[in-house]
Design a protein that fits this description.
There is one protein chain. The chain is built from 14 helices and 15 strands. By secondary structure, it is of the alpha+beta class. The chain has three domains: about 140 residues, Beta-Lactamase; about 50 residues; about 160 residues, Heat Shock Protein 90 (2-Layer Sandwich). α12 runs antiparallel to α14. The longest helix is centred in the middle third of the chain and has 45 residues.
């Protein structure tokens, strides 16, 4: 970039040497115009205090006369109710419009009018109404002093161009080198290289601007903190998961002694699955983030829900809970991992068993539309006394053994797809109902003619 800056400066020098009067004239004209517009803005701002106090036409007229633009008959005020104080040169329709609610909206800016421009400045007055201050800027003010400035700037144009080339080369050498080094380190850290650091001492960092040196110090401190936090989190997750091995061993031995039967098989299956999940957590926590396998998104919600409902149905039959499943006739692709969706469904069904009495019925309904897959889990329990805190992380239901994380996990899964979670009362069963909407429009392509299916509930006793 250093040589690019030098070449740009040289090219600018040649351009100025060949035709510097044209761009110089444009710059001077632009400066004169800005000066005129700025002066007009100050004149308009001078009326702000008066309009904030009163909208009486006589008082506004006295305020206009006290300004330079008002004394030159260049100032006008369009009051909210329609009257105009002063010499207005444009119609209200050029700077206002009526929206769909019937309210008038004003816009500022400049409008071309005869002999110059009209500067429009909306000003808030009482009761939320808006007045518009109009300042006329004649063409003579827009070009005032251009000729004199042309002569002065022409004498120093060549010297300024030469100095700009020298300064660009000097500053570019220092800034570009340091900025490039810092950007390379940031890219390396973002790609997973946690050992990268930016040199801040020695010859390699010599000549770097102080601001970039401070940025390098901050970057190195951030990288060290990231390494420390990642290591601490991995070790903490591994240690906490390892503590579960002892109670899991006891559960596995007890489950092995249960004998035959569907409930015993389901218990042994659940213990084995829990052991696998704990082992996976420990391996994942101890694995270096660089070696982590790629995450594969996408699964069939119908298959996952059918599998998890079948798992919980064994416990439901033991407790005498009638259950219902509907809408599982067709595939329902969703852009989430299979394990995450299974954990969310388990959290919903686990809440039913945990927070309702034995024998309470529950139902699961899967609904598919063109842009979303919705999972409805309802029960015949008492429902939610207050749905708002129930979904808040850590709030829970207040019952024994509740951590308040289950519904928060479900909410994060839904919001990760652009969907949401809604809590309410089940229309059929009368208890709590949780609707989880997983958005699929941008991630999963569904058939165009797929229609909403409510499904006929199949009762299981």
């Amino acid at each position: 970039m250093r040589w690019a800056m030098v070449k740009a400066a040289v090219a600018g020098t040649v351009m100025v040497a060949l035709a510097f009067l044209i761009p110089l004239g444009l710059v001077v004209q632009h400066t004169a115009r800005d000066r005129a517009i700025t002066t007009a803005q100050r004149q308009a701002a001078a009326l702000g205090p008066a309009l904030a106090i009163t909208t009486d036409q006589a008082a506004i007229a006295r305020a206009l006369a006290s300004t330079d633009a008002g004394a030159q008959d260049r100032l006008a005020v369009h009051l909210p109710d329609g009257p105009v104080v002063g010499n207005a040169r444009i119609d209200p329709g050029q700077f206002s419009s009526v929206d769909d609610q019937g309210e008038r909206r004003f816009r500022g800016g400049t409008v071309r009018t005869g002999g110059g421009y009209a500067l429009l400045e909306p000003v808030a007055v009482d009761n939320g109404r808006v007045a518009v201050v109009e300042v006329f800027v004649p063409d003579a003010d827009l070009s005032r002093g251009v000729g004199t400035a042309w002569l002065v700037l022409s004498g120093v144009a060549l010297a300024l161009v030469a100095v700009s080339v020298a300064v660009a080369d000097r500053m570019g050498t220092r800034i570009v080198r340091s900025a490039r080094r810092l950007a390379a380190a940031a890219r390396s850290l973002g790609s997973g290289n946690l050992a990268v650091r930016v040199p801040v001492d020695g010859s390699e960092a010599a000549g770097a601007p102080e601001e970039l040196r401070e940025a390098a110090y901050a970057f190195n401190a951030m990288a060290d903190r990231v390494v420390h936090l990642l290591a601490a989190e991995r070790e903490l997750a591994a240690d906490l998961s390892h503590r579960l091995r002892t109670p899991l061993t006891v559960l596995r031995l007890n489950a092995a002694a249960l004998g035959a039967g569907d409930a015993a098989d389901a218990t042994r299956h659940a213990v084995a699955q829990l052991e696998r999940e704990v082992d996976q957590i420990i391996r994942t926590a101890r694995r270096d983030p660089v070696d982590a396998p790629p995450v594969v998104l996408g699964c069939d919600a119908t298959e996952v829900i059918r599998e998890r409902v079948a798992f919980w149905s064994a416990l439901a039959e033991d407790e005498g809970r009638p259950w219902q499943l509907a809408g599982d006739a067709e595939p329902a692709p969703v852009p989430v991992q299979r394990g995450d969706l299974a954990a969310a469904v388990d959290a919903l069904l686990g809440n039913v068993f945990r927070h309702t009495a034995v024998g309470t019925a529950f139902a699961v309904d899967l609904t598919v539309t063109e842009d979303a897959v919705t999972v409805l889990v309802g029960d015949a329990g008492p429902g939610f006394a207050d749905p708002a805190p129930a979904i808040r992380r850590g709030a829970g239901h207040g019952g024994e053994g509740s951590t308040g994380l289950g519904l928060d996990i479900v909410r994060k899964l839904a919001e990760g797809t652009g969907g949401d979670v809604t809590l309410g009362r089940a229309a059929a069963l009368g208890g709590a109902e949780i609707a989880v909407r997983l958005n699929t429009r941008t991630q999963v392509e569904l058939p165009r003619q797929q229609r909403r299916r409510s499904g006929r509930l199949i009762r299981k006793d």
